[in-house]
Design brief:
By secondary structure, the chain is mainly α. The chain contains 14 helices and no strands.
Length: 313
């Protein structure tokens, strides 16, 4: 909300008039009531509240709109904003008075002036009169979805794209993925990086699949293999290594917040936590299907309790 800087000089005089008692939402507002709203109350709400509490607000907060009678009577997440005729029971009045540290509007110590608060109190006692057109707004617009928004990848249905045709550069395409990469490179006037030497290539694939560098013996084996599928054989060997599951299990264990102790002040040791850790490692090394990987620990109630405990739930 924004602080209202402009104050009308005649506002205190208006507040001297006697406020009729017993006003409700069904009481038909008089022309004077509506004039009071338009000339006094609405500028206060517009300057201090509408930025976050209106149907046009870009950052709509608390489920509350204050620019229509229907929205005000419906209220937001904490209930109706106004009880027509009763300022003491109205959350709007309570909020602007700053009497409750948990309900203060406008926030951030931007309390309204005493004359502004008095104007809102008087308006509520009058029954919170507003023009009838104000009740036509029923839904809050949280921003328009443009055609560009609809093309964001997460909202576009999954489809198999056609493989780009690259003309006379087919020799650079080993599989369809290469065609998409080459298309982007050409569009941005870029070229491929120079091919890595075999030592660099071996180190890269070792770190990627197992998280460890190749030993001197493993490196010598790869360099001595002059066959056309030497690289493919290296990849297959690393995928079959127990180190593969140990390296990639860490990503899943981080996701489920795995820990072998409770942490913080009650840092008790979780005696059987390692069982789930080993289960994840073995599942990855066995290439277990994802659906089976998820459901297997839930097969027994004891397993379910163990998984929830490991996940901190």
């Amino acid at each position: 909300m924004k602080e209202l800087f402009s104050k009308t000089a005649w506002l205190p005089a208006l507040l001297l008039f006697t406020v009729p008692s017993g006003r409700t939402a069904n009481t038909k507002p008089t022309p004077a009531d509506l004039a009071f709203y338009e000339q006094t109350v609405k500028p206060i709400l517009a300057g201090a509240c509408f930025e976050c509490h209106s149907h046009e607000a870009k950052k709509f907060k608390g489920g509350l709109a204050l620019d229509s009678a229907a929205a005000i009577h419906k209220g937001g997440d904490t209930g109706p904003a106004v009880v027509p005729g009763d300022a003491e029971k109205s959350l709007l009045v309570k909020a602007v008075r700053y009497t409750d540290p948990d309900l203060q509007m406008p926030p951030k110590n931007k309390k309204l002036g005493s004359d502004q608060i008095a104007a809102l109190e008087k308006w509520v006692k009058l029954g919170a009169p507003m023009p009838e057109s104000g009740g036509e707004k029923q839904t809050v617009r949280r921003g328009k979805i443009t055609e560009e928004d609809k093309q964001w990848w997460a909202f576009v249905p999954v489809r198999k794209p056609a493989v780009p045709t690259i003309g006379n550069r087919k020799s650079e395409i080993g599989n369809p993925i290469d065609a998409f990469i080459l298309q982007k490179l050409l569009a941005n006037q870029l070229t491929h990086s120079a091919p890595a030497d075999r030592v660099t290539l071996a180190r890269r694939v070792h770190f990627d699949l197992t998280g460890l560098p190749p030993t001197p013996f493993e490196l010598e084996q790869f360099l001595a293999d002059k066959s056309a599928d030497a690289y493919e054989k290296l990849v297959d060997r690393l995928l079959a290594s127990p180190r593969y599951g140990e390296k990639w299990a860490r990503h899943w264990l981080d996701l489920v917040r795995y820990g072998e102790s409770d942490g913080y002040k009650a840092d008790d040791y979780r005696q059987h936590a390692w069982r789930y850790r080993d289960y994840v490692v073995k599942s990855l090394n066995a290439d277990k299907p994802y659906t089976q990987f998820i459901t297997a620990p839930l097969a027994r109630p004891s397993s379910l309790r163990r998984v929830r405990r490991l996940q901190g739930r």
